[in-house]
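Please think about what follows:
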Amino acid sequence: MATTHKKIDQETLENLLYLSRLSPESTDMETLKKQVDEIVGYFEILSKYDDSENPYDAYPSTQVEKLRGDEVVEGLEITDVKKVSKDFMDGYFQVPKVLGAGA
């Protein structure tokens, strides 16, 4: 079944050759024109399925009113932090070495 769709003109084909850095001498122009026409036809088929919905509607969004307030709250006291681990000294926790000896 042959479909009729918009075909590209000679000027557009020459512009495509220029942009793709192809020379008319090294390219079979009739085959190239046929292939480009087929590609244009594929885009016309795809455009039938184009929906006008906002593509960002597919992603969850957060409304500003639902965000938490930017309030400063008190943190833990140093005495409470020292109770969490026995490896606490000078305001820092000692943790196991993660990187190899070369780091």
In short: The chain has a mean pLDDT of 80. The chain has three helices and two strands. The CA atoms of residues 50 and 95 lie 54 Å apart.
